[in-house]
Design goal:
Bound molecules: adenosine-5'-diphosphate, magnesium ion
Number of helices of chain A: 12
Shape of chain B: elongated
Strand order of the largest sheet of chain B: 5-6-7-3-8-9
Number of domains of chain B: 2
Order of helices and strands of chain A: HHHHHHHHHHHH
Number of helices of chain B: 12
Number of strands of chain A: 0
Helix content of chain B: 25-40%
Strand content of chain B: 15-25%
Number of strands of chain B: 13
Radius of gyration of chain B: 24 Å
Helix content of chain A: over 70%
CATH architecture of the largest domain in chain B: 3-Layer(aba) Sandwich
CATH class of the largest domain in chain B: Alpha Beta
Largest interface: A-B, 34 and 34 residues
Strand content of chain A: under 5%
Largest sheet of chain B: 6 strands, mixed
Number of domains of chain A: 1
Oligomer: heterodimer
Shape of chain A: elongated
Distance between the termini of chain A: 22 Å
Chain lengths: 257, 332
């Protein structure tokens, strides 16, 4: 079967992403929010170290402290994932895209590759800048990349943001509606999941949500309340992402555009 | 060549396209005509494999659209409700399209110039007028220099200048040997541009014939005469054994008559004429008779009357605008 050229699709999808300001902005916002909030929390922690650590049972996690802002930064990454897929539906451009590349599986794969690579690149910069900035502000309480598990946690932060972005992109393809996807995903990650994972009993379920699972990747010391470690967290978050992308592909391939 | 084989599309229990079979002939403009809701847009989406047929199939040069490699080089389409992203410039919209099908990038500037968008090439589509959007859509269709072009109601909502531009473009494309498949709900529009005609109603094929044949079959021309001396006129016509019928408001109509000859006849006998006018039965009327049972939506007074005036070529006095609104049997 004749196939569209995959490099051509990648080039075309890259042009689509870089020529719309809203998508570029969400990536920048994710970087700024994660780094700035992390810096602020690190500074506060250093200045109130004794208060913050009173009665603490676990060792102080300097890495996780510098990544405290990721709870908000990830929302911008989720929005990026939604917009990158969803703006084709909101504008009606999806028909032009599918007329140009009727091999739907290939088209969606190309889209997800471009989204994923871009999200990973931005997330890596975000993770390292956030880490070094946070450590600089933590003063004597800082850790280094060479300390056990720290490099893994920093890379984990980048992988976490990338997976969440791809998860959102997959869900958007499943819902084939940008507004609906934003309306489902943003409240879920911003409110529902954090609240549920703090409610007794319910939290045992919430501990298997993609964001909670993925966030285990960026802890140096496993939280006592976490039912599993970082590796299981990675696989769980990865499985959610894979499921969302597979579901998105199934809908994308079968649905009338 | 586009070929439809028993193409059928059902949305829930709504049969939008009902076992359509026809071929779009090469190298001419084919008008795809049908009232609103007849299934024209659906058929075009099925041709592009955007919607999946319930049964039947479509082939383009004997292949399904889904297996075409770089399809923009075979067939370019302007669909209704497909658009560019409002935040992207015209040039960047054409750029990603060109890249996706490995079309040489100099084509972007070429088609921008062709549709007259060069000056706004770096403006975001958000600020475009309907006519500019339409031009950008046509630029997208022409980008891959395809042999086949498909336009869904391209003149809808355009000003007279834009309409003229599109008509000229379609004729020019066909003159270059390309196949043009263009839909419309206006017979008058098709009469001006199409060489071949495919008419559908309620998703079913109603006619598939050359335009000339449709006109020959359906156009009855006549000459209308009005005079303050009807007796003398009728005598003169009888003397030449020209059959005559009473027309509206005391006028007379001579079917198939030649206005020059009738005028000379009246002059020779010194009969004063207040009117001597050739009448053409409207193709619009013929189209509406054909689709009478298949009309689903009635155009509002504004849409139909307005457009009839805009296009008003063959329309009889009183226009088909008023006719269109007449309640039709079988319509719900
Ligand atoms: N996606 C859809 N879902 C449900 N019904 C549809 C859909 N698309 C078209 N239809 C219905 O199919 C019929 C044909 O529509 P369409 O192809 O748009 O007609 P036309 O373009 O000739 O005006 C209409 O009754 C329309 O309501
Ligand atoms: Mg239509």
């Amino acid at each position: 079967m004749a196939m569209a050229s995959f490099p051509a699709i990648l080039r075309s999808e890259w042009t689509k992403i870089r020529t719309v300001r809203s998508t570029v902005w969400t990536l920048l916002l994710s970087f700024l929010v994660t780094a700035a909030l992390g810096a602020l929390l690190s500074l506060l922690t250093k200045n109130n170290f004794a208060d913050f650590r009173r009665g603490a049972l676990t060792p102080f996690d300097a890495t996780a402290t510098s990544f405290a802002g990721i709870m908000l930064g990830e929302i911008a990454m989720v929005v990026f994932g939604v917009l990158a897929i969803g703006n084709e539906y909101s504008s009606g451009m999806i028909r032009v895209s599918l007329a140009a590349v009727p091999q739907r599986g290939t088209l969606l794969t190309g889209k997800l590759v471009v989204i994923g690579v871009l999200a990973l690149a931005v997330s890596l910069v975000t993770a390292f800048v956030t880490f070094f900035l946070g450590q600089a502000l933590l003063g004597v309480h800082r850790t280094t990349l060479g300390a056990p598990n720290v490099l893994r946690a920093v890379l984990g932060a980048a992988v976490y943001l990338t997976l969440l972005c791809l998860f959102s992109a997959g869900v958007t393809a499943m819902l084939h509606n940008q507004t609906l996807a934003l309306g489902v995903l943003v409240p879920f990650f911003f409110l529902l999941s954090p609240i549920l994972s703090a409610v007794p009993r319910v939290k045992t379920v919430a501990h298997y949500f993609p964001d909670y699972a993925g966030r285990q990747m960026l802890t140096v010391f496993q939280e006592p309340s976490a039912p599993y470690g970082w590796l299981a967290g990675f696989f769980l978050c990865g499985a959610w992402t894979l499921a969302a992308m597979t579901g998105g592909a199934a809908v994308f391939k079968s649905r009338d555009a | 060549m586009i070929e439809l084989h028993g193409l059928t599309k059902r949305y829930g229990d709504k049969l939008a396209v009902d076992s359509l079979s026809f071929q779009v002939p090469k190298g001419v403009v084919t008008g795809f005509l049908g009232p609103n809701g007849a299934g024209k847009s659906t058929t075009m989406r099925l041709i592009l494999d955007l919607d999946r047929p319930t049964s039947g199939s479509v082939t383009i040069d004997a292949k399904g659209y889904g297996v075409l490699k770089e399809p923009l080089k075979y067939i370019g389409a302007l669909l209704e409700a497909s658009a560019s992203h409002p935040g992207r410039t015209a040039r960047n919209h054409l750029l990603w399209l060109a890249q996706s099908n490995r079309i040489p990038l100099h084509r972007v500037d070429e088609v921008l110039a062709l549709v007259g968008l060069t000056e706004v090439a770096d403006k975001k589509a958000r600020g475009f007028s309907l006519g500019m959007h339409q031009r950008l859509g046509i630029a997208s269709a022409l980008l891959g220099d395809p042999e086949i072009l498909m336009f869904d109601e391209p003149v809808n909502g355009l000003d007279p200048e834009g309409i003229l531009w599109i008509r000229t473009l379609m004729k020019q494309l066909a003159a270059e040997g390309r196949t043009v498949f263009v839909s419309s709900h206006l017979m008058s529009e098709m009469a001006l541009t199409a060489e071949h005609l495919v008419v559908i109603g309620k998703g079913r094929l109603l006619a598939d014939l050359p335009m000339a044949e449709f006109i020959a079959r359906n156009s009855r021309s006549s000459v209308r005469l009005r005079t303050p001396h009807p007796e003398q006129l009728l005598d003169a016509l009888a003397a030449e054994s020209i059959p005559v019928e009473p027309g509206p408001q005391g006028s007379f109509e001579v079917a198939g008559g030649d206005p020059a000859r009738l005028g000379e006849l009246a002059a020779a006998r010194g009969i004063t004429l207040h009117e001597l006018s050739p009448q053409h039965a409207s193709l619009e009327e013929a189209f509406m008779r054909m689709t009478a049972d298949a009309v689903e939506y009635h155009a509002g007074p504004e849409g139909a009357a307005g457009q009839a005036e805009e296009h008003g070529t063959a329309a009889a006095p009183g226009g088909w605008g008023t006719d269109w609104r007449r309640t039709r049997k079988g319509a719900n």
